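S., here's the first fold you wanted:
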Amino acid sequence: MPSISRLNRRLAAAIVVWASAAGGGLYAVTAHGAAPGNVAEAPASLAGNLRSAGRATIVVTAHPSCPCTRATLHELARIAREVKGAADIVLLFAGKGDRDRVAAELRRSAEGIAGARVVEDPDRAIAKSLGAHTPGTVLFYDTRGALRFSGGITRARGHEGSSAGADTLRSLVAETGPSAPATTPVYGCPLASRTSNP
């Protein structure tokens, strides 16, 4: 029969292994959430039917079934309430989503954003034309159609709350933002890696 000291050593070793595994897992999850995605290579000017002449435009790319998109939509809804129609909002659902609870919830959230126009982009053609690689990419074009902002409006992947991107977007809509084009990190999985996408 093993001695108590041997059992204690085995228990201590098991605790060390468990703590190391738990700590490593927590670090991996945290690092994943804090790692930004690829920034957009957005065109310097916005043309086509995404823009209304003489109006500032906010274009947001979202994946139709990605749970991380929820945080971007919630932040966008707050900004939309604050700007009160001072800019057009185009919400681009890029990719083919799953027909599940997450997708249905994201649709309801998108349709509830004041003044937002939802555009379907199942083959990601529009997202590609805007150089967007990551859901949560937000582009702001001023009243002349010039790019003034490219980035994300969340603090990390799937995390709501104050962020440099959201603050910059608010200032640009209020016409108090930086004169040079601004960028902030955007958080999300690559659009092209989504398994439900073509």
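And the second, which I think is the more interesting of the pair:
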Amino acid sequence: MAAFKFKHFEIIQEDNAMKVGTDSMVLGALINCQNRKVGLDVGAGTGVLSLMIAQNNSEISFDAIELDSLSAKECELNFTNSKWSDRLNAVGMDFLDFEAPAHYDLIISNPPFYQSTLVNDDPRKAKARHEDSLPMNDFVKKVSQLITEDGDFWIIIPAEDHKKWTQTCAQYGLHLVERNSIYGKEGGEVKRVVMAYSKTKILSEEFSFTIRNSKNEYSEEYKDLTEDFHFNVL
């Protein structure tokens, strides 16, 4: 069974509806997880985000929720095979039905954000990628119920959707704390936005960086961001 190798862990994704991609690498590397103790990964897929945070924070424990049963099994396997298996818990179920044992001071997600007009023919990929499987309003409402007063909620979304997410979060008392604009290529447009929300803080930092340079090679800033995770030198 082929595995996607990182420096300190491996990802099996043979049956996963969502493979490891740049979005996950960027989000996982940007998340500030300092002083966090209890995390929740929504739509965990392979479990890569939980594993990246576990690598960066030796004290945090994670519940990782995944709707797709085959993906959830691989997520559990990836956790079991890691050196942090005692701190990582894969849960195969719908997030909206999840009854949390406690509140979380860190909630993270690479959420399904494509609209229904772009539904994939593969039903498993459609659930993983399209908003119909986890409507934004319901998602944010649930997050607001599970997050601690000083906790952070981190997501990566298409750039054109960031105002809609911020407005929806505000309706449930979650305020924008940090915004990272991600350029796919030097000279191009912003493709993704990584954002952090909190109940008690307000926007304090804005950043931007570019994944690929004009030669279509990984930029130095992207290499620096992900160097602790990539198995091979980019």
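Why I say that: The radius of gyration is 17 Å. The mean pLDDT is 90.

Talk tomorrow,
H.
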